[in-house]
Design brief:
alpha/beta, Oxidized Rhodanese, domain 1, 2 domains, 5-stranded parallel β-sheet, 10 helices
Length: 280
C-alpha cells in the first residue's frame, strides 16, 4: 500500500511482522506535545518520529526554512533504527488530518521506499472504531545495512533558485488568509510566492478527517491534472505541501514536485518577490 491504509486494514495487520506503525504527532505551538501524547497513549506497537528532531535538520536563520530536510544518510539511519527496511509496510498517523504523517510518507518515497501509507482518519479514526491504545514503548529492531543505497527516489524536489511561476504551476497548501497575507502567525513576512495559487491542504479532507475519494480530489486538483507545466507544491515549511502531493497521488496525478523550503525559505532572502491578496 503506497498512499492510504484504512483503520480496518491496519487492525487486521497490527501484529504482522512485515508492518510497522509510526506516530508522527506534532504541534507547532508546543514542539514536545506530540512526544508527550505518544508517551501517554498510541496505537499499540507504534514508534514515534519527531518532526523537528528526526524529520528535519537544524534551521539556519536567514538561510533555510523552518523545517529543512535532513541529509538523506541521516534520514536513512533514523528509519533503520526503527527496523524499517525497503520491504517493510510502513503506516504513519497523526492527529492533524495526516499533516505530519504525509511529510514522513513523502520522505520515505524520497529514499525510494514504496510501501508507505498514511492511516486514513488518523488516531481519531482508530479510536472512534473502538480500537485499543497503549502506553508501552516497542523495542526497536535496528537494521545495520543500508538497503536504500541503490534505490531510486520516487519523488522530485526543487529549491528556491529553480522556482519560476512562468514555467511551473505553483500550489500553496496554506489557508487562504495566510496566502493572502492577511494573517501570518508563524513567519516573519506575510503573503505568497508571486504566481502561486491557493490550494489549502485542509480541503483534501472530509468533516471526519478522512481523505476525499479519488474523484473528488481529481476535481479539486483538476487544474493540476490538466496543466502542461510541472506542478510545484509548497506551504509554510515543506510539511503540509506533502499532504497536497499525497492527495494528488491518490487522484492519479503523479510527478508533483515539492519545494521543501517553502515560504519560510523563500522569505529568507529579502530580494525575492512577495505577493499579497488574491492577485498573483
Amino acid at each position: 500500500m503506497d498512499t492510504l491504509v484504512s483503520v480496518i486494514e491496519l487492525a487486521i495487520n497490527l501484529d504482522n511482522p512485515a508492518w510497522l506503525v509510526v506516530d508522527c504527532r506534532f504541534s507547532l505551538a508546543d514542539s514536545d506535545a506530540g512526544k508527550r501524547a505518544y508517551s501517554e497513549s498510541h496505537i499499540p506497537g507504534a514508534f514515534y518520529t519527531h518532526l523537528e528532531e528526526q524529520m528535519s535538520s537544524s534551521r539556519v536563520p536567514g538561510k533555510t526554512g523552518r523545517h529543512p530536510l535532513p541529509e538523506k544518510a541521516d534520514w536513512i539511519q533514523t528509519i533503520q533504527s526503527l527496523g524499517i527496511t525497503p520491504a517493510t509496510q510502513v503506516v504513519m498517523y497523526d492527529d492533524a488530518g495526516g499533516a505530519c504523517a504525509a511529510r514522513m510518507w513523502w520522505m520515505l518515497r524520497w529514499i525510494g521506499h514504496e510501501q508507505a501509507a498514511v492511516l486514513d482518519g488518523g488516531l481519531q479514526a482508530w479510536q472512534r472504531a473502538g480500537h485499543a491504545v497503549s502506553s508501552d514503548h516497542p523495542l526497536s529492531k535496528s537494521v545495520g545495512e543500508n538497503d536504500y543505497a541503490g534505490l531510486r527516489s520516487l519523488v522530485e524536489l526543487i529549491d528556491a533558485g529553480e522556482i519560476d511561476a512562468s514555467k511551473q504551476l505553483l500550489l500553496d497548501a496554506r489557508e487562504l488568509l495566510r496566502y493572502r497575507g492577511e494573517m501570518e502567525p508563524i513567519d516573519a513576512v506575510a503573503g505568497h510566492i508571486p504566481g502561486a495559487l491557493c490550494f489549502p491542504f485542509s480541503g483534501n479532507l472530509d468533516d471526519q478527517g478522512h481523505f476525499l475519494g479519488p474523484e473528488k480530489l481529481s476535481e479539486k486538483f483538476r487544474q493540476a491534472a490538466k496543466s502542461t507545466l510541472p506542478v510545484v507544491c509548497y506551504c509554510g515549511s515543506g510539511v503540509t505541501a506533502a499532504h497536497n502531493i499525497l492527495a494528488m497521488t491518490i487522484a492519479g496525478i503523479d510527478n508533483c514536485i515539492l519545494y521543501p523550503g517553502s515560504w519560510s525559505d523563500w522569505i529568507s532572502d529579502p530580494s525575492r518577490p512577495v505577493a499579497t491578496g488574491d492577485g498573483n
